[in-house]
Amino acid sequence: GDGALARLTPREFEVLRLAVSGDSSAAIASSMHLSPKTVHNHLSAIRSKLDADNDFKLIREAVRLGLVAFPTHGV
Question: What is the Cα 5 distance to its own chain's centre?
Answer without folding.
Answer: 10
